Amino acid sequence: METQILSRSRGWLERAKQYIEAGEVVAFHTETVYGLGANAFSDEAVLKIFALKGRPADNPLIVHVHRAYDISPLIDGEPPYAAALRSAFLPGPLTMVYPSTGKVSKYVSCGLNTLAIRVPSSPTAQAFLKAVDLPVAAPSANLSKHVSPVTARHVFDDFNGKIPLILDGGACSGGIESTVLDCTGDIPQILREGLVTREMIASVAGECGVYRPKTGERPKSPGMAYKHYAPRCKTAYFGREELEKAIECYEKEAKTGVPCFLCESEVCALLKDRRTLDLGGTPEEMARRLYALLRKGEEQATLLIGVEPREKGGVMAGVMNRMKRAFGVEHGTKES
Question: How far is CA 72 from CA 75, 98, 298, in A?
């Protein structure tokens, strides 16, 4: 199979629609990361996503729709705060989880009685979704556990010859996946942190919780696996207060390999002539740059050394979630 990358050109959306209607999988740009989309009503098409990615069968998918799509047949009601949140944040990087009516393929939600729905703000995504005019199930367009893609080339690197089409909308501006919000209870609960923060949600809904999964529990949302978003090289991870240990790790690897730091700007400045990948100085910069730099690091380094950023709240909660999972850690120092 030949994989084509198309940006806005004559017939590009008609071609995408034909592939979706034929049960094929099409990658497309969103404001967060590129998605790997298929007809959410088709069991065969949805299962093709899992097979292509090598995705675990218990890891649910998100359904994407255009801004004017009527989701009422897909969901079994919504609390008043959900309508207010949709008005405030959609289209945008927020996925909302509702009770499901079971209209889409059972494989989308992996047996759960809920359905995750997102309305991306990317013009490319909106044009694509409007053209197909049906719910498109789409996880991130990367091989399972690999770093999420923020350019069409990243998608091509993982799926060349495996999918027919990539809709290129340029580099993703957000850089990390959407916030996933459970809207099935009396108050909204964040299942996966992202660019729409707890504080932002609480300002509209009045309050907002953060769900903490129990050991061994089935995932309620994409991105809850322990090691995820991982580069294909050795990794090590250090807290900000462990910088001297991180430097020792770097010097040890430098004797036989090619180490590189992944850290915020102020730490890069302290590392002088050592190899660094600069995440930036603001939470938004770090979100936007993280996945691109993880992909760059796996190409250039034998060991990628992450140093934990200083700031933790707001958007950084989502950045830290992805960064720790990329390095295979939840707490403390980890080498892999």
Answer: 5, 10, 43
